[in-house]
Amino acid sequence: MKHRILMSLLVISSVLVSCQDKKGDNHNVNVIDVKESSAGLQFNQDVNTMLKKQLEYGKPSFDNPYQYSEKDLEVTAPILSQLLLDNGYKTIGNEEFNNKVKQIFNRIIDKNSASKFLYINFIDKCDKGLNYTPNNAENNGMFVVKNQNFITDLYPLPAIIDYQKAYTETAQEENSASKTYKDANGNEVKKYLWKDTSNLKEQRKKNIQTLIARNLYLFNDNKAQYKWLTLNDSYFMDALVKTFGYTKDSDLLRWVVERSKFDKKDPSDYGKLFWIKDCDESVRLHANTFKVLQKLYLPNDSSENRFILDNIKSYLEYLENNDNPESKVLTETEKVKIMANLAYFAEQYKYNPSYNDGTKIMGRLRFFLGNSSRDILQKNNYFNLPKFKEWWDNADYDEYFVEECEYNGTCGPDNQPMNITEWRKQHPKK
Fold it and tell me: Are strands 180-182 and 150-152 parallel, antiparallel or unpaired?
């Protein structure tokens, strides 16, 4: 009896420890423990001078658009660098860092440029101007800090250091600061002081966590940061793929793919999974996306992934319309190449009996493409897609069926299209 009781207690204890471990694991997934930067806690006159200026202007807003400058970032950069070092960031060499910036953001760091910073614009990736406006609904970007080799948002000092603890005298001056200011028209406008920000401590922690996670993940290949970033910095992670075309990380790409569905309200967004137009006007096709889709699209799958071919079909139909924005930035050859690759990926499932695919993607492509586009296919050897010509020729009946039933609308209870045997008698293969 005693033996049974002892065994029961051991089992209960083991379960409790296991549950605690699991809770700890979940906690580590969602939270990054950060150390305060020693640089941020030590008094520095340059920091103090800039802090006074930032506190006087208050927290930036649409009504109070304090224009930061290069000097603001220069003063902040050493603090950010020390924060990274204190939290395990290993600064990589210039050449390796420059290569990664090129690979991830498709930006080249000019070694001969005197500028200390490079600006990455998330709204207009081809805009290379330095923009010191704090991120808001109309502006979103970050800086590459050259030679110190890290990336960062433009953070005001109160958003990264406990200034009330490290710069007590300057913090006390804020207590007597005016809560209004006069704009260019002489109107009195309300000003929001940093000290009145109710969740400033939480904002500061989130900013530091974001700084650390982004740099460890991208430049130290620290995969432990991936989960935190997808949960807490989804805009950034999504933009790596859809804005900048970074598809090397298969886990990240899969995460973006599974989040992305064709949406009639924003049809262009789905296309960002497959291609990107770079600033030199060249088009990059994302071969890695097709590899991920092939792993996700499984027979008899009950998840949202069962709609992958439907999403591709919808995007193909959208892309063929010459009134869409894509038709204004793509040449006819580029557009045909993208459509051909989409159709080629989807058509493979027509020949796999495990899928019962009825999307007739290649037949749709045949219906969509006019003579000039067909000539482009032939002149480019069907873009060297191995079975494309064979599948293209085999889809002539599908083209007829799609045209009759879906686009001409002539199919109905009293008007059925010919079956393939009847149709082939009238249209023998050449």
Answer: unpaired
